[in-house]
Protein 1
Amino acid sequence: MDVGELHERTVGEWTRIVAGLDASQWGRATPCTDWSVRDLVNHVVGEELWTAPLVQGATLEEVGDRFDGDVLGDDPMATARTAAEEAVAAVSEQAPSGGTVHLSYGEEQLDEYVRQLAADHLVHGWDLARATGQDATLDPELVEEVAGWFADREELYRSAGVVGPRVADGGPDSQSKLIAASGRDPGWSALD
């Protein structure tokens, strides 16, 4: 699967789950122990806001601090929807030609950056679904694609503190294994 399609489809999974939120759920706990539902959505929307300028060649210095703090504002659902649409449009336009992006750790291939975004959308989509009592079943094709990419980066991500310790018994299916590899308990529930 090419990275543009992967990104668009994982963002689609994410936006489907965001659309299922109701106003009473913003303060709920998530599998990301330091984040509420609002914090989690703010994190992903912040990444989406960064996507267009970065894939279009902007540096971190050029973007500055405009996406720091609470980016959701008074209408978080509309902000999330718009940010997702803009990120997908930017990646769809830039991905076919490749190139590099400027990230906090230096220059990175656009393809690799987009795969990072796809993984974040997919796994955080699971986080959000579990936190809000929605169906957390992810598209198996996307799970396989992200899991295959992540397998070669898991220890790097863990050593950098990006993901927590692997959960020993992730479960028999690919989705549970990916969730466990990303430092989450596949059985986590907001009701725990």
Protein 2
Amino acid sequence: MQAHLEMIQGVINRLSQNSFLLKGWTVVLVSALLALAARDSSPAFVYLAYLPCVAFWCLDAYYLWQERRFRVLYDFVRLLPEEDVDFSMDAEQADVSTTTWSSAFTSKTELAFYGPVLASVVVVMIVVLLNR
């Protein structure tokens, strides 16, 4: 059972690491596009900044959703008797109906990160359009 729980925990750790990396890439790409928009006063770069923000938000929500599913699987396996452990990594065998992608997309952590990023893109877009 211990080995199975470690396998599940490894997946959870990888999903969490992927989420962290996506947030870093979001900041880098959006900042670079906004810097180009401010330097060239080209609204095209501001509009382009929406793309990585929204795409990474969706992908980050997917990783959070999967992480939550594997946490449910972890709890399911943790409560199994030793003889019933089959090393399955199928999260569907546990009751994962409590977590959805949309709930992950609108979670506090996602909104707290991607909300200000989107707000900064909107502010820069307004500034660039007013200075044209």
